[in-house]
């Protein structure tokens, strides 16, 4: 009986797994599957590492480092007064302004008219008011002048200075560092411009040359061109105006020549017609 069982077991065929192993495509497919799993695992690990690195970089940037501005904001000129009802008593004398505006920018002193090199501010009420720094800088002059009253000069960057005079008193001294808006003194009177009453005179100068403050309020000190550059631009402007005037004169001369030519041709035609009429007669 035992022999019959052994004989029966011996005669049973191979299992399904053994049959699968005998297939020609089994091992190549197995190798490909394993390779795909390995490659997918490697890619997943690399992607996860990059994401983690990016997170660390972003965290370091946002929290571990202090933000640095790309460009420092420059201070700009502001009017040297804080009072709301202040007005311009005497404007800057502009060589390119109208005759009326130029006349209003003249200061009469010692029987002569002088061109105003800045702006004179005053209150409608005629009262005194605080005069403040138009731009942060260093006090290079703070003294009383017999003609101009108390005078303050501030030095700024780019060869720019601001001047404040006709002050009744001084709140600063030479060498002081002042911030924009600091009170320099109080508006007063000056012997140079008695007609202005209580007022404050303000100038902006570039390399010692006065410029119109109204052109630079809201702009930085670097916006004022150098003297040589300004003179060059002015020369170019005059040259362009002269060239335009010359071209206009040439066009007018050509037009007059064309009119003369047409007139001569018309007269010549009339003479020919008259000659023909006399010949026919």
Describe this structure in words.
It is a single chain. This protein has 5 helices and 12 strands. The chain is of the alpha+beta class. The protein has helices at 2-11, 16-22, 26-64, 99-104, 227-280, and strands spanning 86-90, 106-109, 112-115, 119-123, 130-132, 137-145, 149-155, 160-170, 177-178, 183-187, 200-206, 209-211. The strands form 2 sheets. Strands 1, 4, 5, 6, 7, 8, 9, 10, 11 and 12 form a 10-stranded antiparallel beta sheet that branches. Strands 2-3 form a two-stranded antiparallel sheet. 41% of the residues lie in helices and 23% in strands. Strand 7 and strand 8 form a beta hairpin. The chain starts with a helix and ends with a helix.
Helix-strand layout with pairing:
Elements (H helix, E strand, L loop, with lengths): L1 H10 L4 H7 L3 H39 L21 E5 L8 H6 L1 E4 L2 E4 L3 E5 L6 E3 L4 E9 L3 E7 L4 E11 L6 E2 L4 E5 L12 E7 L2 E3 L15 H54 L1
Antiparallel strand pairs: 1-4, 2-3, 4-11, 5-10, 6-7, 6-9, 7-8, 8-10, 8-11, 11-12
């Amino acid at each position: 009986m035992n022999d019959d069982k052994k004989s029966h077991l011996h005669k049973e065929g191979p299992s399904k797994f053994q049959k699968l192993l005998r297939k020609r495509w089994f091992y190549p497919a197995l190798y490909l599957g394993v390779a795909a799993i390995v490659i997918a695992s490697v890619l997943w690990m690399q992607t996860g590492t990059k994401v983690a690195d990016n997170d660390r970089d972003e965290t370091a940037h946002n929290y571990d480092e202090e933000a640095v501005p790309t460009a420092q904001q420059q201070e700009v000129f502001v009017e040297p007064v804080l009072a709301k009802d202040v007005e311009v008593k005497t404007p800057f004398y502009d060589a390119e302004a109208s005759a009326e505006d130029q006349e209003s920018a003249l200061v009469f002193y010692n029987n002569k008219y002088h061109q105003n090199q800045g702006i004179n501010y005053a209150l409608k009420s005629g009262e005194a008011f605080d005069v403040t720094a138009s731009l942060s800088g260093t006090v290079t002059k703070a003294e009383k002048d017999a003609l101009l009253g108390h005078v303050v000069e501030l030095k700024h960057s780019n060869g720019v200075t601001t001047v404040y005079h006709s002050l009744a008193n001084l709140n600063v001294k030479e060498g002081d560092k002042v911030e924009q808006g600091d009170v320099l003194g109080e508006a007063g009177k000056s012997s140079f411009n008695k007609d202005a009453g209580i007022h404050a005179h303000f100038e902006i100068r570039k390399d010692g040359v006065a410029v119109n403050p109204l052109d630079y309020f809201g702009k930085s000190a670097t916006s004022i061109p150098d003297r040589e550059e300004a003179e060059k631009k002015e020369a170019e402007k005059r040259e362009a105006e002269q060239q335009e005037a010359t071209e206009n004169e040439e066009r007018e001369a050509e037009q007059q020549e064309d009119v003369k030519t047409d007139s001569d041709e018309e007269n010549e035609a009339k003479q020919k017609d008259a000659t023909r009429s006399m010949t026919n007669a």
